[in-house]
């Protein structure tokens, strides 16, 4: 009787859990620590080639992805993200997708695997970090009150980018976790709770790049030494 709950993807156990989803989350929690875009480079064997242990993948020139969990599942999602970015979205709009659009597609693929027959959930948690150019919503631009449409204070015409991606109000660094939630800083993996607590104490608005890198490294050091 218990096997029915363990192997069925859509059958809830008497305690109200989808056991296959629990298995996928357990795989994530066994993975190396990842904080922001810095990750622990951990080998399962001293015989492994260190050059093959990279956990950070470049999806587009402005978007990178890192994971905790099962490597084969991650590589499949990386292939999907690259295909969408380089052949799907770019073919239509002649530009790479914003981070939000890419994460939305990857999250949809991961969600479908939790409710489809013949497949299992992806045993990975993802962090997707990118830099998006600022665009304005359709039908207007910030600070245009009292001036002609598309005209700046000096009377010069100001270019307004269209809203085909839904109207992102401003550009800048973007960080998403696998559930399609934006973060200022976060962590995934075995010691994610400890790392997040550390980040909450260290993170401040307006961090310089050097300070952000330093905090990410300190977070990894804190969680690795605390095991």
UniProtKB/TrEMBL annotation:
PROSITE patterns: PROTEASOME_ALPHA_1, PROTEASOME_ALPHA_2
SMART domains cross-referenced by the UniProt entry: Proteasome_A_N
Region (Disordered), start-end ranges: 135-165
Stored Gene3D superfamilies: Glutamine Phosphoribosylpyrophosphate, subunit 1, domain 1
InterPro entries associated with the record: Ntn_hydrolases_N, Proteasome_alpha, Proteasome_alpha-type, Proteasome_asu_N, Proteasome_sua/b
Biased composition (Basic and acidic residues): 142-159
Pfam families associated with the record: Proteasome, Proteasome_A_N
Main location per the UniProt record: cytoplasm
One cellular component term from this protein's GO annotations in UniProt: nucleus
Keywords: Cytoplasm, Nucleus, Proteasome
Compartment list: Cytoplasm; Nucleus
Domain named Proteasome alpha-type subunits: residues: 5-27
PANTHER family assigned: PROTEASOME SUBUNIT ALPHA/BETA
Complexes and interactors: The 26S proteasome consists of a 20S proteasome core and two 19S regulatory subunits.
Record-stated family: Belongs to the peptidase T1A family.
Name of this protein: Proteasome subunit alpha type
Gene for this chain: PCA2
